[in-house]
Design brief:
Blueprint: E1 10-16, H1 23-33, E2 41-48, E3 51-58, H2 61-64, H3 67-71, E4 77-83, E5 98-102, E6 105-115, H4 118-127, H5 138-147, H6 153-163, E7 166-174, E8 177-182, E9 191-194, E10 199-202, H7 205-211, E11 214-218, E12 223-228, E13 231-236, E14 245-246, H8 248-253, E15 259-260, E16 263-264, H9 265-279, E17 286-289, H10 295-305, E18 313-315, H11 328-338, E19 339-341, H12 343-346, E20 350-355, H13 362-373, E21 378-383, H14 405-408, H15 411-418, E22 422-425, H16 428-434, E23 442-443, H17 445-448, E24 470-471
Parallel strand pairs: 3-24, 14-23, 17-20, 20-21, 21-22
Antiparallel strand pairs: 1-4, 1-10, 2-3, 2-4, 5-6, 6-7, 7-8, 8-12, 9-10, 9-11, 12-13, 15-16, 18-19
Helix pairs in contact: 1-7, 5-6, 9-10, 9-16
């Protein structure tokens, strides 16, 4: 089904806990906590004395990993990944972690983000004789590390990340150590937590909570951490780049119970709603949200405006994607299946509907129509992010610019298209204020085109179509 939202990136997790019998299940539970970041595939790699075992498959974490499989993934250090494909097609060969064999052993790597120069690096490596097994940019990183490993793993990783450009949060296993790397702009999130028996790296702090780790800090932009029996070693490999945390982590991607770069996601979303109330004063009877990601902003708007907040749309949490056919009729049915108006709350009311974003506008149009059919006398739509007018190249799957309604229509035209009585978006300045950061701390390129890294002139994604570690078989 064609989505009217920006799509998730990926989630990474790493745990260093020698002797911890529960490690495989901790990994499974931690990946479930990150499931919102990717639902196409899941994988876990575990190392014991340098020997890496791994298993990955298509599907949700709880479907991929049975207790039987988890019991075969015991070890001292482990990394995991949940994937939504932003480069490379959706095949099990593209699932992560990637495990690469080289002369001295094996490396396991999981990557959240997207490289903007992977195509040119891959072409060069293939000309030099390298063979690739996947169609994802992450394999370029693993290949470079393996080729440089004679320099020692620290120098191999440092030289690799000096060659690649783009967004990345990496968890890596090599030499029975857990390594985390965050790109030099800090585009993708990565944080560190402490267990009684070791340490945890995760895309979001909500995963730390689930595995029982105490949040220590965010990994800094341009930082590599090496975790082993000696503790945590920090290496700042590049402190020259502009800090550019992704604004959409706060708007939509992260769970509200996470803290990203020092800010509570829930508080930032609530404050965005409060700022919307400052920017748009509307006479209405009820504030409702498009669940789930619009709820926190709707609560903030209601608190600031004094207009009651109520439940107006019921979300079916069990809708799947696999049976939705890509035709217009099926898409319309799917919208009604996913969100249904609560008529008892809507009928006869002037309603303010708050959503986190409008990408294509197709879903908003159907929701507004359903609210009117349920008896709403007015439907005013407010959005807790500015119009998305530029594509992302850093790990968020955005449509081509011609498909972004904010890029091709005015706000009045969008309002008419979705059938609302009024439409308002939070300002870029207001959104930055809600996350308590300024333009020197955030990437807001999807709103204003100010990319922190030079990006390809073409929107097309590179596609590479076409492991000696032991892959556990599901038998």
């Amino acid at each position: 089904m064609t989505s009217d939202k920006l799509r998730e990136e990926c989630g990474v997790l790493g745990i260093y806990a020698p002797g911890e019998e529960a490690l495989p299940h901790m990994m499974g539970f931690g990946l479930v906590a990150l499931q919102h970041r990717g639902q196409e595939s899941a994988g876990i790699a575990t190392s014991t004395n340098g020997m890496i075992n791994y298993f990955k498959d298509m599907g949700l974490v709880q479907d991929v990993f049975t207790n039987k499989i988890l019991e075969r993934l015991h070890g001292d250090v482990s990394i995991g990944h949940v994937r939504y494909s932003t480069t490379g097609e959706s095949y099990v060969s593209n699932a992560q972690p990637l495990v690469v064999n080289y002369k001295g052993g094996s490396i396991a790597l999981a990557h959240n983000g997207n490289l903007v120069n992977a195509g040119e690096i891959r072409n060069r490596l293939e000309d030099e004789g390298s063979i690739f097994q996947t169609s994802i940019d992450s394999e370029v990183i693993a290949n470079l590390i393996a080729r440089k490993y004679s320099l020692g793993f620290k120098e191999a990783i440092k030289q690799t990340i000096s060659e690649i450009r783009g967004a990345f949060a990496l968890t890596i296993i090599c030499e029975n150590k857990l390594i985390g790397v965050r790109d030099s702009n800090g585009l993708r999130p990565l944080c560190l937590g402490k267990l009684e028996s070791g340490y945890v790296l995760a895309s979001e702090s909500c995963a730390l909570d689930v595995v029982g780790a105490e949040f220590i800090r965010d990994i800094e932009k341009g930082e590599m951490v090496i975790i082993d029996e000696n503790g945590v070693e920090s290496i700042i490999y590049d402190d020259t780049k502009r800090k550019s945390h992704c604004i959409f982590e706060y708007v939509y991607f992260a769970r509200p119970d996470s803290t990203i770069d020092g800010e509570s996601v829930y508080i930032t979303r609530r404050d965005a709603g409060r700022i919307l109330a400052e920017e748009y004063k509307i006479d209405a009877d009820l504030v409702i949200a498009v669940p789930d990601s619009g709820i926190d902003a709707a609560i903030g708007y209601a608190e600031a405006s004094g207009i009651p907040y109520g439940v107006g749309l019921i979300k079916n949490k069990y809708i799947g994607r696999t049976f939705i056919k890509p035709d217009q009729k099926s898409r319309e049915l799917a919208v009604r299946l996913k969100l249904n108006p609560l008529k008892e709350n809507i009928k006869g009311k002037r309603v303010i509907m708050i959503d986190d974003s409008i990408v294509r506008g197709t879903t908003s149009k159907k929701i507004v129509a359903s609210l009117r059919a349920a008896g709403a006398t007015e439907v005013h739509v407010l959005v807790s992010s500015p119009p998305v007018v530029h594509s992302c190249y850093f790990g968020i799957d955005t449509p081509e610019r011609k498909e972004l309604v904010g890029a091709v229509k005015t706000i009045d035209e969008i309002c008419n298209m979705i059938g609302a009585d009024s439409l308002g978006y939070i300002s870029v300045e207001g959104l930055m204020r809600s996350v308590h950061k300024g333009p020197n701390d955030l990437c807001v390129a999807c709103f204003n085109g100010d990319y922190p890294i030079d990006v390809p002139k073409s929107q097309s994604k590179f596609m590479f179509e076409s492991n000696k570690a032991v892959e556990i078989q599901n038998t």
